[in-house]
Amino acid sequence: MSGEESRIALVTGGGTGVGKAISTALVAAGWTLVICGRRREVLETAAGELGGGTMPIVADIGDPASVAALFEGIRQRFGRLDLLVNNAGSVAPAIPLEDLSFDQWNIVVSANLTGAFLCTQAAFKLMKAQEPRGGRIINNGSISATTPRPNSAPYTATKHAIAGLTKSTALDGRKYDIACGQIDIGNAASDMTAAMSAGVMQADGRIASEPTMDPAHVGRAVAHMASLPLEANVLTMTVMATKMPFVGRG
């Protein structure tokens, strides 16, 4: 690499919501960005808004062939990858566990867990072979990685699994100078959290409105994690709406 401008980052699901907030912060911090997702029009619009030469690549992170093509495109264009943000994800309908279909379960597992694994695996192969060697991986976890909401079994299970993937990645990456950390997000305002202002189910069955926060705070937190030298790592960070009912008993 030659200077800050040559730092290359990939943000999965980087064209909308929290992913776009992360992308915005990384571009502002001088990263050269690749964003991926399944909708070409959304990606191309986001890339134009982000500027900084942002490169959009259509990819389905739950498909091994699509992930392989994504990372081969990055290798051919840039020759390296310095940062992977595993952000893309999905949720199932908030219905009782026993009413979930197998397809609804699989959609969430594919997007949230299998996709993060496939991208991590591909990033390892690229990061361990490039010169200078190494890089950083940041996983989008959730406060659901420790504390579930009612009727959220697929999402909660995958976010618990992401916590394990983060630790295994941090351990297995040591010998290749690959650092891995996780950001656990609580109530960042997005399409996914739009219903919270109207009211969502609490653990005791009540429906209550919950405060949210600007996703730009998440973006800046990820940019800070990414700014560290590889000798230092933020293993876990929680960024949450201060007044959301999470700490204590609600």
From TrEMBL:
InterPro entries: NAD(P)-bd_dom_sf, Sc_DH/Rdtase_CS, SDR_fam. PROSITE patterns: ADH_SHORT. Pfam families: adh_short (PF00106). One of its GO terms (molecular function) is oxidoreductase activity. The keyword Oxidoreductase applies. SUPFAM superfamilies: NAD(P)-binding Rossmann-fold domains. Keywords: Oxidoreductase. Belongs to the short-chain dehydrogenases/reductases (SDR) family. This is 3-oxoacyl-ACP reductase. The lineage of its organism: Bacteria, Pseudomonadati, Pseudomonadota, Alphaproteobacteria, Hyphomicrobiales.
